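Self-study notes.
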Amino acid sequence: MAIMGTAGFGIARCAGIPIDRLELSATLTGALATAVVASLPEPVTTLAAVRRGALQLAVGGIIGGNTFDMLFLTFSDQGYREGSVTTQVASRISSGSSWAS
């Protein structure tokens, strides 16, 4: 637990450097990094399944992961009372506004 905490602190400090230098939104950068890290197991398991010749497993993993993402987005849209989540994200990205506002 101490190693994970220390590693997390170190990663956060290292991530702050390019965010400051490139003047990026820390929230958007964190969200994108989380999305990338969270989705890494999918291509790894797909490639492993293809190498073993389990094409049905590979296709099932891709379809299942994307279906879950769409269900999550649908439920998020229903729970968000200020309109569509995707519309809010698109407008905040195009305007460069903070997620905290």
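Second protein, same conventions, sequence then structure:
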Amino acid sequence: MDLDAVLALWDQPSVAADFRKYYADPVPVNGAPVTAEGLAARAWALQTAFADRRTELVHRIETGDQIVIGFYMHVRHVGPYDTPLGRVEATGRQLRIRVNDILTVRDGLITDIWVMSDDVDLMRQLGQLQSSVEA
């Protein structure tokens, strides 16, 4: 699996056919099926919301048919972004988003994805949550 090529799909304009080179269609994402068109739309939403994206790979573990990656997305928030708490308009802020993905690979295609991102920290960085420190 060419992980660099897979990650690049999320950073550049991509169409469904590009995603079908690496992903089953549809592919379950956290248990819900997403088509290649849906993946391309998600990538476009990220590209619209975030500029200057850089992926910092922290961990990569391969075991049989699974790849587990932990990474940071370093971005600048330049457009509307839909979050678990609602839409956040562009803030211009530099963000560091912590993400872990578990990818199942069969016959050269990603056939299942589990994504775990630190949404609480992201919402704090976007100014949507106050951080509290106990004395």
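Instructor comment on the second fold: The chain is about 25% helix and 45% strand.
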